[in-house]
Amino acid sequence: MGNLFSSGNEGGNSVLSKNAEAYVQNGIPIEAVSLRCEAFRLMNEAKEASRHSQLEYQSGNKSQAKLLSINKNNLYIRMNEKNQQAAELIFKHFNQNRSNEVIDLHGLYVTEALKYVEDGLNRCRLENLSQLTIITGIGNNSPNKIPKIKPQVEEFVRRNNLKVTYYDGHIVIDLSINDENKTINDRNSNECIIL
C-alpha cells in the first residue's frame, strides 16, 4: 500500500486523518491504522529532536545535543516497534483464511513485505510445499497508483535465483526444484536504515 502518511503541511492532522481513512477504506484493521498513526507521530518527533540536536551542537551545547540525540534514537526505536506491531496485525488480517502456500502483502511497507516473503519461503521449504503464491497487488492502493511492493518482490526473486511465474497482482514461486532445503536470508545483517 505504500506509506500514505505524508508529511505535507496542508493542515498536518487533516492530511494524517485523510490518509488514515484511506487505510481503513482499503481494509486495513483500525488497530493497525492507529499504530501507523502513532509511528508517524513518533517519526516527526524524532526528526524534530534531530533538528534541535544539530542546532544545539552547532551552538556549542554538546551535552544538550547528546541528550536530544539519545531522545531521537529512542523515538525511532518506538516508531519501529509501532510499525512492526501494525505489520503483524495487517499480515494476520489479510492472511488469516489462506493456506500456507499463499501470502498476501497488501497494506505492508516494502521492507515488511520482503521479510514476510523470506519467512514464507523458508516456511514452505520446511513444510515441503511445492510452491508459494505471493499476492503483491498491482499498485491500486499506492500513491499515484505506482506499485511499490511488486517490483521489489520481483527483484528479490531474481536476486535469489528462484523459478517464478509472473501474473498481474501476484507471482507464483516454484519450490519443487530440489535445492537441498536452502533457506533464504536476503536481509543484510549490517543493514542501515536512513530516515
UniProtKB/TrEMBL annotation:
Gene3D superfamilies linked to this entry: 3.30.1370.110
Alphabetical list of SUPFAM superfamilies matching this protein: SMR domain-like
Residue ranges annotated for the Smr domain, each copy included: 103-164
Domain of life from the UniProt record: Eukaryota
PANTHER family found in the cross-reference section: SMR DOMAIN-CONTAINING PROTEIN YPL199C (PTHR47417)
Protein name: Smr domain-containing protein
Species of the source: Adineta steineri
